[in-house]
Design a protein that fits this description.
- The chain is α/β, with parallel strands linked by helices and 368 residues long.
- It contains 13 helices and ten strands.
- It has helices at residues 3-18, 23-40, 44-49, 54-63, 72-102, 134-142, 162-179, 187-199, 233-241, 279-299, 320-325, 327-333, 344-367, and strands spanning 108-112, 123-127, 147-151, 184-186, 203-207, 219-223, 226-230, 244-252, 257-263, 314-315.
- The strands form two sheets. The chain has a seven-stranded mixed sheet with strand order 1-9-8-2-5-3-4, sandwiched between helices.
- Strand 8 and strand 9 form a beta hairpin.
- Helix 1 runs antiparallel to helix 2 (23-40), helix 8 (187-199) packs parallel to helix 9 and helix 9 (233-241) packs across helix 13.
- The longest helix has 31 residues, at 72-102.
- It is globular and about 50 Å long.
- The relative contact order is 0.13.
Length: 368
């Protein structure tokens, strides 16, 4: 075991011990753990990659939110945001252990917007790596809705230290206790099962704050002051299943107390027969979702504990050659034109969006 493996074992062993403490002591333990991780620049990906980078990468993204990032005041503020990011992630991991021990009694959650969530149609519910999102999702499942969570198989990679793989396996087991067996699905080989779940009226929760991989076409959206290419999996799911689109935000209201706010595109949830199946309006709905996430991040940046991922995002300009070269394909995807009055931004997003859906559908057919 190397030094990173030993540090990971000490870190996650301490996490399990902290979860057994009374609430006030557990709160202090979470704060101390966050401070140590911030000081040493360590979290689970650092242990896996054997590279300390998250603190600097997160600060670079947070700097985009400041008008004068080089000033002393901005640097101090940015450091506090990054420290808060380590605190939020520490509490998120802590909540999973508490859920395993205490069940839903470990946390209280008030859900807002639940009345708009349909029970007869599938919903792609967009989220981000924001606050402690898993405990509120367990409360959503307890309200009687079928909930699926899109996850990644990367957490099972042999390069990840065994103690961290054990933590993620425990998280999967705990969530499936409330969601249902098989309801945490790895997107790398489970997109078809998520489509079937949506067609059966389920809610599929999927993160939308991951950039498009380097060699793939992404969905161009305006996010944090620029148009960037984000992963197109959520868009493909919504289109493939004819599902409705919504997004969620978790609000911390004290230790162990949360609010879950569900939001919908302007006009509220719409059925399959309405314009949700239209690429242009679905693209516009994604723009609204990213605008809401943008506003939340600018309000409390430290709640977003995956900010460093955005450094890998490519700009919309990277897709310009693709858009020009595939114009004929775009024209054949849909005979309908963008509605009159649609903005140039929405039109451009819709064109790239339609190509992304065509490309993904071809990929799925080839695999079959």
């Amino acid at each position: 075991m190397d030094r990173y493996g030993l540090a990971a074992w000490l870190d996650y062993s301490a996490l399990k011990l902290a979860a057994r403490l009374p609430a006030p002591l557990a709160l202090a333990a979470c704060g101390l753990r966050a401070l140590l991780r911030f000081s040493l620049n360590l979290e689970w990906r650092s242990y896996a990659l054997k590279r300390r980078y998250v603190r600097q990468a997160t600060a670079q993204v947070y700097a985009r939110l400041q008008p004068k990032p080089s000033s002393l005041r901005a640097r101090i503020q940015r450091s506090l945001w990054v420290l808060g990011r380590f605190w939020v992630e520490s509490v998120e991991e802590f909540d999973v252990i508490r859920l395993e021990r205490l069940g839903l009694a470990a946390n209280r959650c008030q859900i807002k917007g639940l009345e708009g969530l349909p029970r007869d149609r599938g919903v792609v519910l967009l989220t981000a790596h924001w606050e402690s999102l898993y405990a509120p999702l367990c409360h959503l499942a307890a309200s009687g809705h079928k909930v699926y969570l899109a996850a990644t198989v990367l957490v099972e990679d042999p390069q990840v230290p065994a103690v961290i793989r054990e933590h993620f396996a425990r998280k999967k087991m705990v969530l499936e206790r409330f969601f249902g067996q098989g309801h945490v699905v790895y997107v790398e080989h489970g997109m078809a099962s998520l489509v079937r779940a949506l067609q059966g009226g389920a809610v599929v929760v999927i993160a939308c704050d991951s950039p498009a991989p380097a060699k793939s076409r992404g969905l161009a959206v305006r996010f944090l002051g620029a148009r960037v290419l984000m992963a197109q999996g959520p868009a493909w799911l919504a289109q493939a299943a004819g599902a409705e689109l919504g997004w969620m935000r978790v609000e911390r209201r004290g230790f162990g107390r949360y609010g879950l706010v569900l939001s919908w595109p302007q006009g509220g949830p719409r059925g399959r027969e309405a314009a949700i199946a239209e690429a242009e309006l679905l693209a516009a709905a994604f723009e609204q979702a990213y605008a809401a996430l943008d506003a939340a991040i600018r309000e409390t940046p430290s709640c977003w504990w995956a900010a460093d991922l955005l450094l890998q995002a490519r700009s919309e300009a990277d897709s310009c050659d693709l858009e020009r070269g595939e114009q004929k394909n775009l024209d054949t995807v849909s005979a309908k034109k963008v509605p009159m009055g649609a903005s140039a931004t929405t039109q451009r997003t819709a064109r790239i969006f339609k190509y992304c859906l065509t490309f993904l559908n071809r990929s799925v057919k080839c695999k079959k």
